[in-house]
Write a structure and sequence with these properties.
1391 residues; Leucine-rich repeat, LRR (right-handed beta-alpha superhelix); Immunoglobulin-like; seven-stranded parallel sheet; six-stranded mixed sheet; globular; disordered C terminus; calcium; metal ion binding; immunoglobulin domain; repeat; leucine-rich repeat
């Protein structure tokens, strides 16, 4: 008999899983009252179509999901009283057509959105009394509803006001608009006439204010528009009407009406004028990459719209015509249809849509899944005993096949001499006679397998003898000479040549071996190439001058305190990772060498090497070019990635980003070149920036000085507060940017030619690229001719470096960081950086921590080494810089606070994971916590931050996540890093606000931005990070206004110091764009499918302000010359977003690549379990603030949105949190997992894949082996080929096993000792190695007191109060400055 009544009361039920009652379709009554349920999720009661009575009262319910009661079509009575409900989604009670009784009394409901009780046509009893209802204008709709109920007499309803106090206890039904001071709507932004063509998008702006907030309604020809019946019509959040794919029927008269309970207001009538031709072409359906098996059929859909109607044609990816094959057809809708797909059909196909006026195209791949096929096959080899032999074997297929080797049909011997490389090559070291025989290479994938064989013949050793000897020769100067010399022996003898009187061997060019002459030949290279004689001297000079300039800069920067903004900038940008320094140095030496050779040749040639007619590959011989690459260090810095440890790579990220994309392991890795959307634009075509030659004209006009563009167009004193978003929106953008990109700039502040400082000479000699100051600029009065600027370091093999190779590669720049959103700003982008921030001593997976403040929470550790940018003035800033995963963490105080939050978040998670899984080792805890932190950052960025920046239009361009695409390169685009993402500079407030717990200014006051740079002492001495964080989420941000771009704090006072010339961030952004060869704005307009601009009037749709267009015209002369950065900043924002159309295009493109090209993206199935992913999606920046600030207890749920304090703020207890219990190992042998890894690995390496399971083992086996637990979380490596451990195991294998066991036991003892010391040691050891007893206290210095607590050292820093005199002095032994002559009572206190 089916259940009709289910009583689950008094069971301490905490949560209801979606679908928990799916099998109880006949259920009539469900009692869940008097439990501990906190939330009703979507689909909780799905399929209970016969349920009539649902009891949920007296629980702890705080929130109800939108679809919580979905499917309850028969529900009549719903009891939700005596809970903790604060808000009710307006759609929660929709689709409950038979609901008669709804009890919501005795909750905490403050507001109800209009429409919450719509469609409840059967309602007879509604209780909302004993809540915390705010009776304001927003609730008048409820008053009207209650009056309607009272007049009809069919429904009893109760609702009382709690606020304001003057009407507390009043029935909502009795309140009127007059006593609530409701305001009629007033229009604040009127729409304008619009001209559209077929297929384009039109916007009508309408903004209104009133109390309550007015509803926006649009009329066309005096009839209300329905957004539901026409999907092309969209009403954006700010009231803007967006009409997509405009049609002739859209033309007419439009009017906006704003309406609320107090009245209504209408805008002026405006006209939409429709012009049918021509409408720009646009794809309706773009072809998508498609996988297909051989023999099946496939269709690539393609459809476009435009006027005239476009025709669809197809070609192969190389623009060649489709084959004349009856299998290949184009469908009536434009799709490409291929029957009986063959392997040759694999490849790229391009769909063209043309209508005579223009043409667009899109490409897609057909990936044919097929049997593996060998691309490299092993060859028979004859080798001498003792040599090493490689059998190369590579195969392609789809999916990519796995390579496995056998010998004579049996598994290979398990010893260290036999090694299968990641490429598939079999390497046998120390070949022995018994290695002779047949070797089989098998390529296997899910479709099938292929095999190829090769023979190995082993010969004994033979002593070498000469077969021919050189003879004396007489030759003319400048000619080639060949001296023959050959020998015989096994292995083949190595021949070296020496010149009499010299001990150094002579270089043999061309590899030394000439197979046709059956001997070795000494080749003297032809010296006819013009640059060859200068190679040796140029290399020496380049190394000397570059190293001299770099060492001079290092001495200047690190042996003293910063003397100018130039020094601050150089210190700020100077790489901390030695590998980064080495790579940048190599690129500079390589390029400097070639420049010197070029100069030498120019002195003796009547040819312009800067022209385009000269063949650069004739300048230096290829062997000499290789020599330059070797001696400069370029060759040594070509990384060879190793992705063989799949147990690690399947689960965790590398610190440097390698091996994320297993097919292209260097995609997105640190210290690789930025990607490009468009070809670089340099003045000479390969490496000199646009504008480097002041006399050069572009399209008839010279390029303006970047500083002139800044002062004319960008800099502004005015700030308009944002009504929607807080300053935290800017701060998250900067923190995110420091996870994505950091350009490696030249290591020297001085030019290489003579060592003079770039700011002193104001020239463009490498690496200088000074920003010239125009006449009449205020900086001229200070005596400055230029601002300091040096070029970014080149990638080896680009720019000047590539000129002497067979093809010219434009100069590329190095991204020092990983491209992925992986929290590299917390952990670093290299193993070296990661080790520097980890606490490796505790084995708890923690990050290093610094001093602990009174709150009990630590700050970041201090950076060690010489004085840094944070100690430019000892009287002001005695505190060194903090150390974090990104070297820019101290740039400004808001950013430093964010770094502190996230380092604490890692340690909070790590501590919790250790408590849940005490058997995990430190590395496992570290990588699991790092993985969670990275996922939290991804979720906050894409679900909370990006929707506000991109708006509805941009999020639609971004598209939904559809899974990992290994064909997408997630690398950072140069234009994104150099121009597009710098839009955040326009959001920066000129003041960093500091607020106390009551959101009032702290006694020390707010901080002007130019005083917040490199000032960690303000965190240590002036209240910690909480005041700064409150100032970020409690204060409105700076609104993006085209006439108010970068505040003068950034253009006139950047890194300012006394008696020095400050820098200009806007001018630096423009100069950096030219340095990087970023194409002009117009090129990106075309890339983003905007119209070409031949005149400045053609920009009026994107830049509506005529004054701005006139300024651009005066500066640039031609719209084809405009730099990308300033143009992106002055574009009018797309309604509902913060960006203009071109900027929206570039950001959505980059963030789509970052997401889709990340194999370890948090939403990619398999990265987290479904239950873990559900918890990750609980993440919010509000929760991070609550968990990791010093003492922040109230925040708004969305810290990016402006809220009124205190009503708009919630208690931290009410902010959802990630439940880390989902990361707990739930198994019987967890406590032994990970401790016997070496022991179990020995057995795993001896097992055969043929008998992976015990029940498959033949009965004749005498002694079966049992595998011990594998290390936690490490996936099994299914590609490992190994043989069975038999009784005939060689003696050396047994010795190896014993040694391995001894090492394992030793390691276990060490771990046990570490754990015992962690649990039992109560003493402490300070930084000087001195031991202190438990609870002992001591002074570390004048300002710090330390205490030993249960083996942990906790240090407290004394905060200095403002001294009561104008000029306090420092006294030895005292922490704070003192007044020598006593306080001066009449002296005003400094603000």
């Amino acid at each position: 008999m089916p259940f009709v009544h289910r009583d689950l009361r008094f069971n301490r039920i905490r949560e209801i899983q979606p679908g928990a009652f799916r099998q109880l379709q006949k259920l009539n009554t469900l009692l869940l009252n008097n439990n501990q349920i906190k939330r009703i999720p979507s689909g909780a009661f799905e399929d209970l179509e016969n349920l009539k009575y649902l009891y949920l009262y007296k629980n702890e319910i705080q929130s109800i999901d939108r679809q919580a009661f979905k499917g309850l079509t028969s529900l009549e009575q719903l009891y939700l009283h005596f809970n903790q409900i604060e808000t009710v989604d307006p759609e929660s009670f929709q689709r409950l057509p038979k609901l008669e009784r709804l009890f919501l009394h005795n909750n905490r409901i403050t507001h109800l959105v209009q429409g919450t009780f719509n469609h409840l046509d059967s309602m007879k009893r509604l209780r909302l009394d004993s809540n915390a209802l705010h009776c304001d204008c927003e609730i008048l709709w409820l008053a009207d509803l209650l009056k309607t109920y009272a007049q009809s007499g069919s429904t009893q309803a109760a609702a009382t006001c709690e606020y304001p106090r003057r009407i507390q206890g009043r029935s909502v039904a009795t309140i009127s608009p007059e006593e609530l001071n409701c305001e009629r709507p007033r229009i604040t932004s009127e729409p304008q006439d619009v001209d559209v063509t077929s297929g384009t998008t039109a916007y009508f702006t309408c903004k209104a204010e009133g109390n309550p907030k007015p509803e926006i309604i649009w009329l066309r020809n005096n009839n209300e528009l329905s957004m539901e019946t026409d999907s092309r019509l969209n009403l954006l959040d700010d009231g803007t009407l967006m009409i997509e794919n405009a049609q002739e029927a859209d033309q007419g008269i439009y009017q906006c009406m704003a309406k609320n309970v107090a009245g209504e207001a209408k805008t002026q009538q405006v006209t939409l004028r429709y012009s049918g031709s021509p409408a720009r072409l646009a794809f309706v359906i773009q072809p998508q990459n498609t996988e297909v098996l051989v023999g099946e059929s496939v269709t690539l859909e393609c459809s476009a719209t435009g006027h005239p109607q476009p025709q669809i044609t197809w070609t192969r990816g190389d623009r060649s015509a489709l084959p004349a094959d009856p299998r290949v057809n184009i469908t009536s809708s434009g799709g490409l249809y291929i029957q009986k797909v063959a392997q040759d059909d694999s490849g790229e196909y391009t769909c063209f849509a043309s209508n005579g006026a223009e043409s667009i195209h899109a490409t897609a791949l057909i990936i044919v899944q097929a049997l593996p096929r060998f691309t490299v096959t092993p060859e028979n080899r004859v080798v001498t005993e003792g040599q090493t032999v490689d059998f190369q074997c590579e195969a392609k297929g789809h999916p990519q096949p796995v390579i496995a080797w056998t010998k004579g049909g049996s598994p290979l011997s398990v010893d260290r001499r036999h090694l299968v490389l990641s490429s598939g090559t079999l390497r046998i070291s120390g070949v022995a006679p018994h290695d002779q025989g047949q070797y089989e290479c098998q390529a296997v994938n899910i479709i099938g397998s292929q095999k190829v064989v090769a023979q190995l013949l082993v010969q004994p050793r033979v002593t070498p003898v000469f077969a021919s000897i050189p003879r004396d020769m007489t030759v003319e100067v400048g000619s080639n000479v060949q001296l023959p010399c050959s020998s015989q022996g096994e292995p083949e003898p190595v021949i070296t040549w020496n010149k009499r009187g010299e001990s150094r061997p002579v270089q043999m060019w061309g590899g030394g071996c000439d197979s046709q002459m059956a001997g070795h030949v000494l080749r003297v290279p032809d010296v006819s190439r013009n640059g060859d004689p200068f190679v040796a001297t140029s290399i020496v000079e380049a190394i000397t001058t570059v190293d001299r300039a770099i060492n001079s800069t290092r001495t200047h920067l690190f042996d003293g305190r910063p003397r100018s903004p130039n020094d601050l900038l150089a210190l700020f940008r100077y790489p901390r990772d030695p590998y980064t320094v080495g790579q940048a140095r190599a690129g500079e030496i390589f390029e400097r060498t070639l420049q010197l050779i070029q100069e030498h040749v120019q002195h003796g040639l009547m040819v312009d090497l800067n022209g385009t007619s000269y063949h650069y590959n004739d300048l230096v011989s290829p062997p000499y070019l290789s020599l330059i690459a070797n001696l400069s260090g370029c060759t040594a810095h070509r990384r060879v990635n190793n992705c063989s440890d799949m147990c690690f790579h399947q689960k965790y990220r590398t610190h440097d980003g390698t091996c994320n994309n297993l097919q292209h392991p260097m995609w997105g890795a640190s210290l690789t070149a930025f990607e490009r959307l468009l070809k670089a634009v340099y003045e000479n075509g390969f490496n000199t920036p646009r504008g480097v030659n002041a006399g050069r004209h572009y399209h008839g006009h010279a390029l303006p000085m970047p500083r002139l563009v800044s002062t004319t167009l960008v800099g502004s004193e005015d700030v308009t507060p944002d009504t929607q978003f807080t300053h935290m929106l800017m701060q998250w953008g900067q923190f995110l940017d420091h996870d994505l990109d950091s350009t490696v700039v030249a290591l020297s502040e001085a030019r290489f030619s003579d060592g003079q400082h770039c700011s002193a000479v104001c020239t463009n000699d490498p690496p200088c690229f000074s920003i010239m100051i125009p006449p009449h600029d205020p900086r001229v009065r200070a005596g400055a001719r230029c601002m300091f600027f040096v070029r970014s370091s080149p990638v080896c093999g680009s720019g000047m470096t590539s000129l002497l190779m067979n093809s010219v590669y434009p100069r590329e720049q190095i991204n020092q960081l990983t491209s992925y959103i992986d929290a590299s700003n917390v952990y670093g982008s290299s193993d070296h950086e990661a080790r520097s921030v980890r606490d490796l001593a505790s084995q708890r997976g923690l990050l290093r921590q610094g001093i602990v403040q009174r709150s009990g929470k630590p700050l970041l550790p201090f950076a060690t080494g010489p004085p840094t940018e944070c100690m430019r003035d000892e009287n002001e800033s005695p505190i060194p810089c903090f150390l974090a995963g990104d070297h820019r963490a101290n740039e400004q105080l808001g950013l430093t606070s964010m770094h502190t939050l996230w380092f604490r978040e890692h340690n909070r998670i790590a501590a919790r994971l250790l408590a849940l899984n005490p058997h995990w080792d430190g590395d496992t805890i570290y990588h699991e916590a790092r993985k969670i932190v990275g996922a939290e950052m991804q979720h906050i960025t894409y679900q909370h931050w990006l929707p506000k920046v991109l708006g509805a239009v941009g999020m639609k361009m971004l598209g939904a996540y559809r899974g990992y695409d290994p064909g997408v390169n997630a690398g950072i685009v140069n234009a994104f890093a150099t121009a597009a993402f710098r839009f955040g500079h326009t959001l920066i407030n000129p003041v960093l606000y500091r607020l106390d717990a009551s959101f009032q200014p702290i006694p020390q006051g707010h901080v002007p931005l130019h005083k917040a740079f490199f000032s960690p002492f303000r965190i240590v001495n002036e209240g910690g990070i909480d005041p700064l964080l409150r100032g970020l989420f409690g204060v409105p941000g700076k609104m993006r206004v085209p006439t108010q771009l970068l505040n003068t704090e950034l253009t006139e006072r950047l890194f300012s110091m006394a008696r020095t010339v400050a820098l200009d961030l806007a001018a630096m952004n423009i100069q950096r764009g030219r340095d990087h060869g970023i194409p002009p704005y117009h090129d990106y307009r075309v890339y983003c499918n905007l119209s070409a601009a031949h005149t400045f009037e053609d920009l009026k749709n994107e830049i509506k302000n005529p004054e701005i267009r006139e300024k651009l015209k005066r500066l640039y002369g031609s719209p084809l010359n405009i730099d990308l950065f300033p143009a992106l900043m002055v574009e009018d924002v797309v309604p509902g977003s913060l960006l203009g159309p071109t900027l929206l295009c570039l950001l959505s493109t980059q963030f789509r690549r970052l997401r889709d090209g990340d194999r370890l993206w948090y939403e990619n199935p398999g990265v987290f379990s479904p239950a873990q992913l559900t918890q990750i999606k609980q993440t919010s920046l509000a929760r991070i603030l609550c968990d990791n600030s010093d003492n922040i207890t109230r925040v708004q749920a969305d810290v990016f949105r402006v809220a009124e304090f205190p009503h708009g703020y919630s208690s931290c207890k009410d902010i959802p949190r990630v439940d880390l219990r989902l990361w707990q190992d739930c198994c019987e042998d967890c406590r032994t997992r990970g401790q016997f890894n070496a022991f179990s690995y020995h057995f795993r390496s001896k097992r055969s894949l043929d008998f992976s399971y015990q029940e498959d083992e033949p009965t004749k086996r005498a002694r079966p082996q049992k595998e011990l637990g594998a290390k936690h979380g490490a996936p099994s490596n299914a590609t490992t080929a190994s043989s069975e451990l038999s009784e005939g195991t060689a003696t050396n294998d047994f010795k190896e096993f014993v040694q391995e066991m001894q090492r394992t036991i030793t390691d276990l003892r060490r771990q046990i000792n570490t754990l015992e010391s962690r649990l039992s040691t109560a003493q402490c050891v300070d930084a000087d190695g001195k031991v202190h007893a438990n609870h002992a206290t001591w002074r570390r210095d004048a300002c710090s007191t330390c205490e030993c607590r249960d083996g942990q050292v906790t240090c407290f820093v004394e905060a200095c109060q403002p001294a009561p005199c104008p000029e306090p002095t420092r006294v030895d032994g005292a922490c704070c400055p003192v007044c020598v002559e006593g306080p001066q009572e009449n002296t005003p206190r400094a603000s």
